[in-house]
Design brief:
The protein is an alpha/beta fold. It has 14 helices and 25 strands. The strands form 6 sheets. It has a 9-stranded mixed β-sheet. A hairpin with a 3-residue loop joins strand 23 and strand 24. Helix 1 packs antiparallel against helix 2, helix 1 packs parallel to helix 7 and helix 2 packs across helix 3. The model has no long low-confidence stretch (mean pLDDT 92).
Length: 499
């Protein structure tokens, strides 16, 4: 590629730093960085990493909590030509060793409180808050002045969430992520005047690549939080410091269930983004009733596509509350049957993609790559319906559809019916092995008040055809989920099978 023609992830920051050098780019705790300061820190951090004996193309694990240092490390890897490997900070034991080992990470940047979990054979460097950490070395490190990476080079291995199988490392290039950033900016109406807060894990593609990086591209001031703490979020909104928030449905459910939700002054929140899993329609209706002026955006996709694929905008919700919207700027999508042929509008099928945002395949997994990329399209594993106007509705994950007595039941439809009962705080519906029904529709419920199994089954029968209603209801204190908010239905199926 001709010098000067490449577009890189770190180049997104460099351009903003030249355009608005004195504007505050990032705030974390008591630290803040202007765009010029952040760009300089990234160049110095790139030198620190290469000074560890790393070479372009080496993989670097990132095992840390949300922080400014985490962001600087990602951008420094991008600038130095290294491949960043974000690791869920909640992983331990074999799960942690698998990703570090499968990626072949030559170095792991780890927060000091997490470093002890790493296998003894893994070489690590403190990410922050320790003597000799990456952040501590910035003051004396020289600026990186090496060659700029090419747009077609790998910049990150995005490991899938692994809700149904071992995680796979989606190989993302600079080019794919920069395309995704532009898609996010245009579809989500991101602007320099927005005041976003980033509270979800930065190791997850949604928070990093749909919001934080695109917001850096447009020159906004970004607040990074350790976690989506309701008290902190509500305080920031009431103080006028935040007007844009992304959270998965589980977090929005938690915020809407807080006792102070009806009384706090949340009118300053202008943009609400949700995604990462399906938002129950009754919950969305409750949020819209409480905050009628708040603009809601439904963001849908998956790691392999950067991850944004479709968006339902604020003016598109009426009449299609369960839709995930239409494809974003650089994504083409179809709905196909098992043979890869288009199905008629209104007919469920697997949604498949073609896009410059797509990963190059899965790291060191040629068979899985060949299976996912068939006939020139990426097969998502999501069951969807497309309407005549180009709007998509996700019915279910293909693997989560329940075969009850030979009839297919979408778990989402049953969940939406149960969410209309006032005593249901959260619910996940799965199919469990059953001699009579093949799979019995089973609802795992976190109750909000007194309610019985018979009451909920009767309530579902009022909303659904009888064969779709749960055969069984299990009450639990909480649902298992990963750090991005996705409910781990695989764990529910494994735990309750045979019980």
């Amino acid at each position: 590629m001709t010098p000067g023609h490449s577009s890189t992830v770190d180049g997104v920051l460099r351009r903003s730093a030249r355009r608005t050098p004195a504007r505050v780019a990032v705030e974390y705790g008591d630290r803040s960085w202007t765009y010029e300061e952040l760009d300089s820190a990234v160049s110095r951090a790139a030198s620190v990493l290469l000074g560890q004996g790393l070479n372009p193309g080496d993989r670097v694990g990132a095992y840390g909590h949300n922080s400014d240092a985490y962001l600087i490390a990602f951008l420094a890897c991008a600038r130095a030509g290294l491949v960043h490997v974000p690791v869920n900070q909640n992983l331990t034991g074999d799960d942690l060793a698998y990703i570090v080992g499968q990626s072949g990470s030559a170095l792991v940047l780890a927060d000091p409180d997490l470093a002890g979990r790493l296998p003894d054979v893994v070489r690590s460097l403190p990410l922050r808050d320790a003597e000799g950490s990456l952040l501590a070395q910035l003051a004396t490190a020289p600026a990186y002045d090496g060659a700029e990476p090419r747009g077609d080079e790998l910049v990150q291995l995005l490991y899938t969430s692994g809700t149904t199988a071992l995680p796979k490392g989606a190989m993302m290039t600079h080019r794919s992520l920069v395309h995704e950033y532009l898609s996010a900016i245009t579809a989500l109406d991101l602007s320099a005047g927005d005041r976003p807060v980033h509270a979800l894990p930065l190791y997850h593609s949604a928070q990093m690549h749909v919001f934080l990086m695109p917001y850096l591209a447009v020159g906004a001031t970004n607040i990074i939080l350790d976690a989506p703490d309701g008290d902190r979020l509500f305080d920031l909104i009431e103080a006028g410091r935040v007007d844009s928030l992304f959270a998965p449905p589980t977090v929005w459910i938690g915020l809407s269930n807080r006792p102070d939700f009806p009384t706090r002054d949340l009118g300053g929140l202008r943009k609400a983004y949700y995604g990462a899993s399906i938002m129950p329609v009754p919950v969305l209706e409750r949020l819209r009733e409480r905050l009628p002026k708040l603009a809601f955006y439904n963001c849908f996709g998956q790691s392999e596509i950067g991850p944004l694929a479709t968006v339902l905008g604020p003016d598109e919700h009426k009449g299609r509350m369960d839709s995930c919207g239409r494809t974003v700027l650089f994504v083409d999508a179809r709905v196909v049957d098992e043979d890869g042929k288009d199905v008629p509008d209104g007919t469920p099928g697997e949604i498949v993609y073609r896009s410059p945002q797509l990963c190059e395949g899965y790291w060191d997994k040629p068979e899985e790559t060949a299976e996912a990329f068939r006939d020139g399209w990426f097969h998502s594993g999501d069951l969807a319906v497309r309407d005549a106007h180009g709007y998509f509705t996700i019915v279910d994950r293909v693997k989560d559809v329940i075969n009850s007595g030979g009839v297919l039941v979408a778990s989402r439809q049953v969940e939406d019916a149960l969410y209309t009962h006032e005593a249901v705080a959260e619910v996940a519906v799965v199919g469990l092995p059953d001699e009579r029904w093949i799979e019995a529709v089973t609802a795992v419920v976190v109750p909000r008040g007194e309610v019985t199994e018979d009451e909920l089954i009767a309530h579902a029968r009022e909303k659904l055809s009888p064969f779709k209603a749960p055969k069984r209801v299990v009450f639990v204190d909480e649902l298992p989920r990963n750090a991005s908010g996705k409910i781990l239905k695989r764990e529910l199926r494994e735990h309750y099978a045979g019980r």
